[in-house]
Design goal:
It contains 11 helices and 8 strands. It is an alpha/beta fold and 271 residues long. The model has no long low-confidence stretch (mean pLDDT 94). Bound molecules: ligand 7PJ. The site of ligand 7PJ has 14 residues, from strand 5 and strand 7.
């Protein structure tokens, strides 16, 4: 993880490969198969250039239902342990539950990625105590209803204020400044127009005090803009990463690791 932070500090880009461990993501049968497929996918993303693997057991897509603590633990912890048997690739845990954060860190995760920006009771304390980097993401509302009617007066200003205030709260709780990443949260309580404004104005987040992580990969904003199903959003996703890079973002959460790395290598070569 230190390596990743050093890379970001020196202006290099970093790719986070997405590993979803929800029942629909590895659906071909028994527990062994699921673990084995998750491991293979993680190793493949590492080989393709991912610096860190983001493991999530609760879908936060629009309309998704919450999962119980036990269910989430049962999904993610065996996968982290399995990956740890085979490689020391950095692992981030995509969760909002403090109990999952703690168990994941004990099992070998070294970063917390929370779409709820550590709002759950106890989350700030866990991240401060274990001294792990955290990604604070902005969202408006909850996954069940967030896309129903998002409202902003000035979206960029509002999200900047939110992220800076949240970072301040983290620092007060004992989280080190250099362990904080911020994320405007594409698709989380945002209309297509909102998402496009955030991408267009990305530099306004990248000039704040914290490295910016962006999650644009295969998002429904591309479905809306281009009328593309989720498996047809590669070009738009990679293009959006390039745009974000050019406006200062350096940390990219993606499904398509190899293709994104190609594009980012080109960006870096001309920057
Ligand atoms: C994001 C995330 C994102 C961060 C998801 C999806 C939805 N974490 N987790 N940023 N999105 N930090 O990948 O479509 O944008 S789940």
């Amino acid at each position: 993880m230190q390596q990743i932070q050093n890379k970001l500090r020196s202006g290099h880009w970093v790719v986070m490969g997405i590993l979803n461990v929800t029942p629909d993501s590895f659906s071909d049968g028994g527990l062994f198969n699921q673990l084995d497929n998750a491991l293979k996918h993680a190793l493949q993303m590492q080989q393709e250039g991912a610096d860190i693997i983001d493991i999530g057991g609760e879908s936060t897509r629009p309309g998704a239902q919450p999962v119980s603590l036990d269910e989430e633990l049962n999904r993610v912890i065996p996968v982290i342990e399995k990956i740890r048997e085979f490689t020391d690739v950095a692992i981030s845990i995509d969760t909002s539950k403090p109990e999952v954060m703690q168990a994941a860190i004990k099992a070998g995760a070294s970063m917390v990625n929370d779409v709820n920006a550590l709002h759950a009771e106890g989350a700030l304390e866990i991240c401060a105590n274990y001294n792990v980097p955290v990604c604070l993401m902005h969202k408006q509302g909850n996954p069940q209803t967030m896309q129903d009617n998002p409202q902003y007066a000035d979206i960029v200003d509002e999200i900047r204020q939110y992220l800076m205030a949240r970072a301040g709260t983290c620092i007060k709780a004992g989280i080190r400044r250099e362990n904080i990443f911020i994320d405007p949260g594409f698709g989380f309580g945002k209309t297509l127009e909102n998402n496009l404004s955030l991408l267009k104005e990305m530099q306004q987040f990248c000039t704040l005090d914290y490295p910016v992580l962006v999650g644009l990969s295969r998002k429904s904003m591309f479905g809306m803009l281009l009328e593309r199903d989720v498996e047809q959003r590669l070009v738009a996703s990679v293009s959006a990463a390039v745009i974000a890079y050019q406006k200062g973002a350096r940390f990219f959460r993606v499904h398509d690791v190899a293709d994104t790395c190609d594009a980012l290598k080109l960006c870096a070569a001309v920057t």
